[in-house]
Amino acid sequence: MPGDPARVEKTAKYLDQDAKFLAQNREYTSFLATLCGQKVLVCSTGIGGPGMSLALEELADIGVKNFYRIGTTGAIQPDIPVPSLIITSGSVRLDGASTHYAPIEYPAVADLELTNSLVDAARATGLEYRVGITASADTFYPGQERYDTFSGYVIRKFQNSMKEWQALKVLNYEMESATLLTIIATFGLKAACVASTIVNRTRTETPDDSILNEAESNLAKVMKKALEIRFA
Ligand code: URA
User: Which of 7, 15, 172, 226 has CB 3.0 to 4.6 Å from 2, enough for a Cys bridge?
Assistant: First the structure.
């Protein structure tokens, strides 16, 4: 599950050059690929928790059991390169959608088996990666403490929040993993998340669009390898 609908076809065709278009509506584009004789549904979720939650409900309903998010992210620890991969072991729940499914004390943790497949895949492909905690926010700007905005104002709740997450060894910001990991755990299903860094926030607030293609192809590469490892 990438966030971006434009990434669905490319990812599906990387997995299987004969992948078939299924449907397109709003932020949801889906293709069906076959890899190692197994069906892989590639479906976008749009940006943020609400779109993700709707996709999860309907995909779980048609029988999907294992969910991988492949996304982009902003690193917040100074030693994390751009691009590189961050595999989420658990998320700080800065979203709203997951609170409609479980109280905030409930953890947003990734499934160990799916996460291990991503780690093995990152190792096998030789891509640089880290495994750790992600801060997953409902907003790209104030929730990730960005000041390059229309008002330039960040509410008190988020002022100095990046510094705090850094001190607590959080690796990165993104916008969907908290919703994904919480909801899928409450369903008794499996989910994991890998994201490619497109900015390091210790250096700049603005993502580097010129590395988007590389980030996307690294995600497709690690995803294909992880599935091959699981299906072997
Ligand atoms: N996605 C995010 O949510 N934040 C970033 O900084 C980059 C990608």
Answer: 7
**pLDDT of 208:** 85
Is there a domain that residue 170 lies in? yes
For residue 76 and ligand 1, the question of a CB distance below 6 A is answered with no
Q: Is 121 helix (H, G, I), strand (E, B) or coil?
A: helix
Record the tokens describing residue 15, joined without a space. Answer: 């997995």
Number of domains into which the chain is organized: 1
Res 50 pLDDT > 90: yes
Check which CATH number belongs to the domain holding 84 and give it: 3.40.50.1580
Atom 2 of ligand 1, residue of closest alpha carbon:
174
Q: Is the CB of 3 under 6 A from ligand 1?
A: no
Q: From ligand 1's centre to the CA of 115, what distance in Å?
A: 21
SS3 for 228? helix
Ligand 1 pocket member 72 (CB < 6 A):
yes
Domain presence at residue 122: yes
Contact predicate 72/200, CB 8 Å: no
* Structural domain of 140: 66-231
